[in-house]
């Protein structure tokens, strides 16, 4: 895949959808260590103003986690893979059922038996991060598959970068992007979505269907994304170049 170029982005008819971890911000050893720097906040604020508010974060993080990362800077966001949505006017909607307590307890107990694993709990999902114990990948996947198998079909298992998560069905970034694209100020614009993980593939597929620009950061082997950027720094430079052309 080739690096995207931006001559046509200089008009004001694009809507921007941006993943967070591994895309706007580097992945850390623990999710709670991630925080937005001043330069990024200024960049996102400038982008939002230049494109009349048509900028949204699209993340697996919960809405509360996003607000911790970005502080007082609040823009539209699809959190928890779309289960939580904040529109540009601040309206928040939630569409989910919670994972049974017995399943949560089993996941917590498994993680406690293996030093270095980290459980991440969100309002409607729970995942195990094994970034600090990569040799436990198979064990984590096996345990989560067994716990998931005991749930009804209202839940699904999802893998990401060094994480396995159980969450309600119907949660994906593509559906979240479609929802935003039907509302002001996104409606009628051409969408750009940038992500870095397998959890972003639903988003890339929807963007391609809408005739927009799908971009994957990092390794894009097997991805539906049509363009590629090398890393987080490359994306920030590219976003700044889009602003500079206005």
Give the topology, please:
Blueprint (H helix, E strand, L loop, with lengths): L13 E5 L19 H13 L4 E4 L4 H8 L5 E4 L4 E3 L5 E3 L6 H12 L5 E4 L4 E4 L7 H13 L5 E6 L2 E6 L4 H9 L8 E6 L5 H9 L3 E5 L9 E3 L2 H13 L2
Parallel strand pairs: 1-2, 1-10, 2-3, 10-11, 11-12
Antiparallel strand pairs: 3-4, 4-5, 6-7, 7-9, 8-9
Which spans have pLDDT < 50 for at least 5 consecutive residues?
none
Class of the largest domain, according to the CATH hierarchy? Alpha Beta
CATH architecture of the largest domain: 3-Layer(aba) Sandwich
Count of individual helical segments = 7
Q: What is the CATH superfamily of the largest domain?
A: HAD superfamily/HAD-like
Largest sheet: 8 strands, mixed
Indicate the proportion of strand residues.
15-25%
Report the C-alpha radius of gyration, rounded.
18 Å
User: Overall 3D geometry?
Assistant: globular
CATH topology of the largest domain: Rossmann fold
Mean pLDDT: 90
Amino- and carboxy-terminal Cα gap: 26 Å
Helix content: 25-40%
Tally of DSSP β-strands: 12
Structural class given helices, strands, pairing? alpha/beta
The overall number of domains is: 2
Describe this structure in words.
- This protein has 2 domains: 14-95 and 171-244, 3-Layer(aba) Sandwich (Rossmann fold), CATH 3.40.50; 101-168, Alpha-Beta Complex (Hypothetical Protein Ta0175, Chain: A, domain 2).
- Helix content is 31%, strand content 22%.
- The chain has 7 helices and 12 strands.
- Strand 1 (14-18), helix 1 and strand 2 (55-58) form a beta-alpha-beta unit.
- Helix 3 packs antiparallel against helix 4 and helix 5 packs parallel to helix 6 (201-209).
- It is globular.
């Amino acid at each position: 895949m080739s690096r995207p170029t931006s001559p046509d982005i200089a008009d004001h008819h694009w809507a921007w959808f941006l993943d967070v971890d591994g895309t706007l911000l580097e992945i850390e050893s623990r999710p709670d260590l991630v925080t937005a720097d001043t330069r990024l906040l200024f960049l996102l604020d400038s982008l939002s103003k230049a494109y009349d508010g048509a900028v949204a974060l699209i993340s697996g993080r919960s809405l509360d986690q996003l607000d911790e990362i970005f502080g007082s800077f609040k823009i539209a966001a699809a959190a928890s893979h779309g289960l939580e949505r904040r529109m540009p006017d601040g309206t928040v909607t939630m569409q989910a059922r919670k994972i049974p307590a017995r399943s949560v307890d089993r996941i917590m107990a498994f993680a406690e038996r293996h030093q270095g694993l980290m459980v991440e709990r969100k309002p409607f999902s729970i995942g195990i991060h094994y970034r600090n114990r990569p040799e436990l990948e198979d064990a984590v996947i096996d345990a989560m598959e067994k716990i998931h198998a005991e749930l009804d079909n209202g839940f699904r298992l999802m893998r990401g970068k060094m994480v396995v998560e159980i969450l309600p069905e119907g949660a994906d970034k593509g559906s979240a992007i479609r929802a935003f694209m039907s509302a002001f100020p996104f409606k009628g614009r051409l969408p750009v979505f940038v992500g870095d993980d397998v959890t972003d593939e639903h988003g890339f597929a929807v963007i391609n269907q809408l005739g927009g620009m799908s971009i994957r950061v990092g390794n894009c082997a097997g991805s539906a994304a049509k363009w590629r950027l090398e890393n987080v720094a490359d994306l920030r430079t590219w976003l700044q170049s889009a602003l500079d052309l206005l």
